[in-house]
Design goal:
Helices cover 48% and strands 6% of the residues. With 67 residues, it is mostly helical. The chain has a two-stranded antiparallel sheet with strand order 1-2.
């Protein structure tokens, strides 16, 4: 069951915020979406990415999103 804090966060807004943040550093995850199989868990599905995308994502996180 989702906690009260988790329930207060709009699932679609969270997903789109992540999509926008990734786009700002030039990363696109085509499979990013809402996991409709487990609505009570309120999961954002990241899916699979190529190894070069994973490496760029790791670099962006390590830089704190700064270019």
């Amino acid at each position: 069951m989702a906690t009260k804090e988790q329930q207060d966060i709009d699932l679609f807004v969270s997903m789109e915020s992540l999509r926008a943040a990734l786009a700002e550093v030039g990363i696109v995850i085509p499979s990013l979406g809402i996991d409709s199989a487990s609505p009570a868990l309120r999961l954002v599905e990241l899916g699979r990415v190529r190894s070069d995308v994973a490496a760029r994502l790791a670099q962006a996180i390590q830089r704190g999103g700064r270019e």
